[in-house]
Amino acid sequence: MMKNEENTSWGIVGMPRKNTKNTKGKIIAAAWKLFYEQSYEETTVEDIVFESKTSKGSFYHYFDGKDALLGTLANVFDEKYEELQTTMDPQMDAIQKLIYLNHELFAMIDNSISIDLLARLLSTQLLAKGEKHLLDRNRTYFKLLRKIISDGQKSGQLRSDITVNEILKAYAMWERALMYDWCLSGGGYSLTAYTDSVTPMFLNNYSSSFVTYK
Predict the structure, then answer these.
(1) pTM metric for this prediction
(2) Is the pLDDT of residue 197 over 90?
């Protein structure tokens, strides 16, 4: 798959520029920049320390090793969501906002995250016995989605016979399912194009105008 080579402050289109004010943030930013540019396998802790202009002591203060950085992809996603909060048209209805967020995040994955890295993240989450970063309800991801869904119900745009938590869980599961399938398929299709074609149909089930049959 061809990647967009246009540079930003991270050297990657769509990748966060914000998380560089503290040592941990600098390490995360440098790591994902290097993972993208020279692959995960070819990147060493020394490379990350040099790129981040920090020290080995600082690195190991925050991370046990390079593998521990895989879990920080959730942080990368959340920074993208923080950025999207400022660019999202407030006049859009709830479903349009969810479609917009989904499109922009998956476009970032298509253009900036290698399928190998995404697969590694998903596999580590499957094997994790403790904290699962992707499911952390304190993430910006879940807070933003909850607000959009809650506001959508209050304004009559979304169904009220289903709770906010039920819609939130279904949406998050839907996005993870799309990412898992993309990885299983070896990235053989455009994740963005596919989600653009199917996610609106999925979300239509939660529209207040959707007709249910019992």
Answers:
(1) 0.77
(2) yes
